[in-house]
Please model this.
Amino acid sequence: MNILIIEDEYSLADAVAETLKNENFNVTIKTNGEDGEDEALTENYDLILLDVMLPKKNGFEILNYLRQEKIKTPVIMLTAKSEIEDKLNGLENGADDYITKPFSMRELMARVKAVLKRTNNIEDTNCLEFGDLALDVRNAKLKCNDNEIQISGKELELLEQFLLNKNQVLSRENLVERIWGYESDAEYNNVEVYITFIRRKLKVIESKVCIKAVRGVGYKLVVEVNEK
Ligand code: CA
Model:
């Protein structure tokens, strides 16, 4: 798979490229906005890692232009913490995910793989499974054996995160960032509210899967074992 990195910090771009190459990706680096945009418009990439503050043309301008030109290549924005809130609209307008600098290479790889899985492997992600649970992404339905129940958009997004990151504890911060795109106390409560909704629905369809709270850390999807 081919990944384009548009990033003007050479050392960061190189470090990211090295990590991706070790995972057998082909990597191209562009270090200013204009070159990056030209490359994204003319070559076929599976994913673009796009910095925000770039010489000649910034990341949000590039993203807007690509989407305007119907280039659907998934984009993960690389942003500084301070750039997030006022650029939220930009993020909602076509980025698939974003990662806040400084980030670990492990975190980056997790995001890259999640986005690629979500966007490339359509058959896989139309139906996500865990234990006795199946999530029909296209129709927003949660199924267990012969039972099924309709879920809302946010419930779907939350469940997708859990099912794409099986066996991982997802923090509230992480869920808020991925689903609402920024942090605030109100949004933390939203996560809890939606998790309560989802738990109720899991009970309704009689699934053995449940969302377990991991104290002080976050939430994890587990299969409940009946103790007799
Ligand atoms: Ca930069």
Remarks:
- The longest helix spans residues 185-204.
- The chain has two domains: 2-118, 127-223.
- The pocket of calcium ion is lined by residues 8-9, 51, 53-54 (CB under 6 Å).
